[in-house]
Fold this protein.
Amino acid sequence: MTIQDVKQIKLADYLQSLGYTPVKQQGRNLWYKSPLREETDASFKVNTELEKWYDFGIGKGGNIIALAAELYHSEDVAYLLKRIEERTAYIRPASFSFGRQHSDNQPYQGLR
């Protein structure tokens, strides 16, 4: 998995794969209890449009790789990519093809 592949994974999907679900949603922002520390009130925000996170309790934020760096206490990008891939092996960005799709147009063929 490359850096570009990892950046296509939605933060909400990644957090879900780690067992975190949002406490509330406000517009394009999802609020979580921080995966980086213990807390009683949600102060970890994910902007679903920008795919960025920010933890108000520690004053840090960034993209999915920055989150993995905090979670796994490492700056080794190859290690972080591997850890993200392990957690999100089933999550893949959709690929779209706008070419003509073949259709049989006879869905009931052979029915009596």
The CA atoms of residues 98 and 104 lie 18 Å apart. The radius of gyration is 19 Å.
